[in-house]
Design brief:
The chain has two helices and eight strands. The protein has helices spanning 2-16, 30-34; strands at residues 36-39, 58-65, 68-74, 81-90, 95-99, 102-113, 119-132, 135-142. The chain has an eight-stranded antiparallel β-sheet with strand order 1-2-3-4-5-6-7-8. It has one domain (30-142). It is mainly beta.
Length: 143
């Protein structure tokens, strides 16, 4: 009888101890998956090596609908840029961002480098938007 009770306690203990990410709810929409603030650093974009960390640009995606977001690109040294009505589509390994009939970016799980240079898995946002022939927005950031 003690062996059966011990076995039941062992099984109960093993099934109740799961990783935290195993019980997190999955976002129900594409917009819920991509919404957030994405920051860059010198490991993701070496062109900012001479820029202080408080002056690095960042991008924020805000929900407009279930499959649409608005992009707010903030560069402390320049004016903010806002692109609305960005639609989202799921691809095999990424989520594509579309505006004006063309792909303006992708979001995928990839290896990222934190501000301290440590490598880990995370969401990596890549943007490339040509507003005018002489003005292009390029950004790589992580959440």
């Amino acid at each position: 009888m003690k062996k059966q009770l011990l076995f039941c306690a062992f099984v109960g203990l093993m099934t109740s101890c799961q990783q935290d990410d195993a019980i997190q709810p999955n976002p129900s929409t594409l917009a819920a998956e991509v919404v957030g603030t994405y920051r860059t650093n010198v490991y993701l974009d070496p062109s900012y090596v001479a820029v202080p960390s408080n002056l690095l640009p960042y991008a924020e995606l805000k929900t407009e609908s279930d499959s649409g977001v608005a992009l707010i690109y903030t560069n402390p040294e320049k004016s903010d840029q806002v692109i609305q009505h960005i639609t989202l589509s799921r691809q095999a390994n990424s989520i594509q961002l579309h505006a004006g009939g063309s792909v303006v970016g992708t979001l995928q799980t990839d290896r990222i480098f934190t501000n301290s240079g440590m490598e880990k898995q995370g969401k990596l946002l890549r943007l490339s938007v040509q507003n005018t022939p002489e003005r292009t927005l390029s950004f790589v950031g992580y959440r």
